[in-house]
Amino acid sequence: MTMMTVKAEAAWVAVGPLSDIPPRGARCVKNGPMTIAIFRTAGDKVFALEDTCPHKGGPLSQGIVHDGCVTCPLHNWVISLASGRATGADEGATAAFPVKVENGVVYLSLTAAG
């Protein structure tokens, strides 16, 4: 998995081509001490979450991407890619970040979504 360091002062940061993120996979970028996972669904939708499960801090980037969610590899918590919130009976959330794709390039906003 490629790791890239980004700087927080930019409104949108280019993190690389969409083709660098495997379908149903993730790529990580560093923003200071935080790691942000950028996910690509089978349908080429792109989402960004802090790479930390709200349960026990598992690496979400190593989880299984399915149905608009990612399943944490440690304890199988299912996290919504759109909101960062745990689904089902589990409670908690990780930070979600705006992301967009323009001309095949993925851009990340380093301001967490509300």
Provide a descriptive summary of the structure in words.
This protein has one domain: 3-layer Sandwich (Rieske Iron-sulfur Protein). The chain is mostly beta strands. A hairpin with a 2-residue loop joins strand 10 and strand 11 (105-108). Helices cover 0% and strands 40% of the residues. 32% of the residues are buried. The protein has no helices and eleven strands. It has a five-stranded mixed beta sheet, with no helix packed on it.
CATH superfamily: Rieske [2Fe-2S] iron-sulphur domain
Structural class: mainly beta
Rg for CA atoms: 13 Å
Distance between the termini: 28 Å
Percent in helix: under 10%
How many domains would you count in the coordinates?
1
Largest sheet: 5 strands, mixed
Here the CATH topology equals Rieske Iron-sulfur Protein
Number of strands: 11
Strand content: 35-45%
Quaternary structure annotation: single chain
In the CATH classification, which architecture applies? 3-layer Sandwich
CATH uppermost class:
Mainly Beta
The coarse overall form would be globular
Low-confidence stretches: none
Mean pLDDT value? 91
Which strand order does the major sheet show? 1-3-4-5-9
Secondary-structure element sequence?
EEEEEEEEEEE
Given the structure, what is the number of helices?
0
